[in-house]
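Q: Could you fold this chain for me?
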Amino acid sequence: MEQQEIPSFTLVSVFKKYKKLLFLITSSSTIITLLISFAIPYRYESDALLLPPETSSMSGGLSSLLKASPLGSLELPGMGKNSVSENYMVILKSKTLSSKIIDSLKLLNYPLFKGATKQEAVAMLTDLFTITVTKSGSITVNFELSTGTFFSSSEEKKYTAELASKIVNLALHYLDVLNREKSNSSAKRSRVFIDKMIEENKDSLEILQRKFQDFREKNKAFSLEEQLGAIVTSAVDIGSALAAAEVELKLALLEYSPEAPNVVLLRKKVETLKTQYKNVQEKGIVGSDNFSIPLTQVPEISRVFLGLTRDIKILESINAFLITQRFQEYIQETKDITTIQVLDYAEPVYLKVAPKRPAMVVVAFVTSLILSIFGLMLYETLKKASTQTE
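A: Sure. Below is the predicted structure, expressed as structure tokens.
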């Protein structure tokens, strides 16, 4: 049996043959789409703009300790403007903020949320927010809200547009509230931590001061610099006198016998000076006084004395810094000022963002035309093929 060729139809031939039917289908689809665009819920949007947050406004907490330290000039990770902006974005997209908005505006009675549980409404409201953070750290808060009903009246459309702006502005208000609570809570934790450090530092300072006092009493190191000056001067004077007495004794022995009175006196003088010089080295200028320090112990006493003095001064400096910082954290904890800077508050925008009626009509017309033509071409092709087969 000879195979028959299935004829094909061109776009033009189908259009000419079924132009009335194509007109009916496309016009019907377009009119139906147009009617639907009037019936479906309208959507309105509103937005606000926040300036880049100042990092100084978020200096409460332990980060201020770093800023006040010599490392404060360094840009540490997690302390820049973008990081604070991202924190703002997290708060704006949080369930806590959405829950507060729903309770404040009683949104569970709004048509879009009717029949939804509180948890479902919170999730829906959170998804309606679009938060954008620029490279400079500024934040755009966008919110899109639907009327929630078909064939919405003019009053419903106006109310929806105004409600969208109210929600955005209320979100900014609760952003400030939650951010202040976070900042004040952080400052409180820091103050408690600093109070603990001050007490520990105070105890360490008292222990060190008692240790320093015991050391000074034990080693007679009351005014070390003046004492060392007096000891060195005495040692030099006694040493010089001893050297001169020994020279005199040697010269006297050249002229007199060892038992001569003047030689005996010089020998006693030399022995006395040697004893005094030894005492300076080992016991101090006078062994029984409470001021002299043995010269042989000066290096070790000086090392310990200076070490203890240094440690006490360090602890005193730390204590003074912590007291100042505690006062700053207390101010941060109790202050109640705005922490965000709003450049543009949200205002009602009565121009809908959806449905986009012209776009819907054009898409409906083009789609219905294309689908109709190809459907009719397929119909004609199958019809001819069936006829030839018979």
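A (continued): Confidence is low (pLDDT under 50) at residues 1-7, 56-62, 70-79.
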